[in-house]
Amino acid sequence: MTSSPGPLSSWPQTAVLAVHALRAWKMPQVGAAAGAAVAFGLLLGLATVLIPNPVFARDIPPVWWNYPVWVLTSLLSGMLFATYVRPSFVPSDDRVGDGPTADAGERRSGRLGMAGGMLAWFAVGCPVCNKLALLALGYSGAITWFAPVQPFLAVGALLLTGAALLWRLRGQIACPVPGREKEKVR
Known about the structure:
Layout: E1 2-3, H1 11-23, H2 27-47, H3 66-82, H4 100-124, H5 131-173, E2 174-175
Parallel strand pairs: 1-2
Keywords: Membrane, Transmembrane, Transmembrane helix
Transmembrane segments: 30-51, 63-85, 145-167
């Protein structure tokens, strides 16, 4: 493992580290990514009625971009889930992700991933079936104000989930180096 680039590291370097991490994945990570992507896709697809079902209803039909956002968010979320699966080559006493710095990074990437999933749900869901939008804006307000914002929510969902995935993948290759504590001057 190499030391991690700083917090303002370049995106190309992060992308290269992410590709290296993906190449190192074994069957446990690939299987977890596939399973989680299917599970997330089913959950999001059924709840937003992108997959027609008798349990949920949708007043306004989906638009063309709902489907690619749904699939991409499912794939990114599945891959993000797989980053939490322990690689088989890491000894149990030398775990990746130990320490307070790693915990903060895991929380941050977990929050980004969760926010991306929630934004995807708001983005691909029916604008008038969303109870929060309906309560806040009313039926006509949800159509007039919330529906035009949904594509931006979709872009935000993809960016947040993608950033969380890149962050986690980068951390599998490059570990953060803890900074030295400042000495107290007396």
